[in-house]
Amino acid sequence: MNQAQVLKVAGIDSKHPVMGFLTEICIPGNYRFRVIVAGATLELLINTLIKHHCKKHGKRFVSYTYDSKLLILHEMGILSDNRYRLLNLFKNLLRNDAAHEHKFEITKETLSKFPITITTNQEHYVVSHICIKMVMELWNEHSNVLASYFTGHKGFSP
Fold first, then answer.
1. Closest Cα to residue 84, out of 141, 147, 155, 146?
2. Residues near 26 by Cβ (< 8 Å), separated by ≥ 6?
3. 32, 67, 71, 84: least surrounded by Cβ within 10 Å?
4. Rounded alpha-carbon distances, angstroms, from residue 65 to 42, 45, 47, 75
5. Whole-prediction pTM value?
C-alpha cells in the first residue's frame, strides 16, 4: 500500500491539517526545528481545546500561560494524567530548550523518559517519532473536537 492509499483509508487528504504538520515535521534538518514545530502544534491544539471546553470563559484563558491551560484541561478531566504528564515532559525537556538554549542537544537520558515504540539507535528517528507521536496522540484523543475546528466537520470516517 502506498502513501496515497494509506491516507485515503485514514480519511485524510493532502489539505488535511495533520498533513501540514507531518510535512513540516519530516523536513530533513536539525532537532530544534522538529521540536519547535511539534511544540507549536501542541500549543495550537491545547488552545483549541481550551476555547471549546471553556466556552463561557475561553476568551479569558487565551492570555493564560501554556502551563495554566494544561492544568485547566487536566483538572477538568479533558487531559488524562498520563497525557498531562507527557505534555509537560515534552515542554520542559525538549520544547523549552529548543526555543531558548543557544546550544540545543538531546541526550539519550532525555529520550529515555518518553514512551518510544520504535527500535533504532538513530536519534534523528527517535526525535521525529516523539514529536509525531505527541501531536498525533493528542489529535486522536480529541479528534471530534479538533476536526470540527480545523476541517469544519466532526470526526473522520474512512
1. 141
2. 128
3. 67
4. 13, 14, 10, 15
5. 0.78
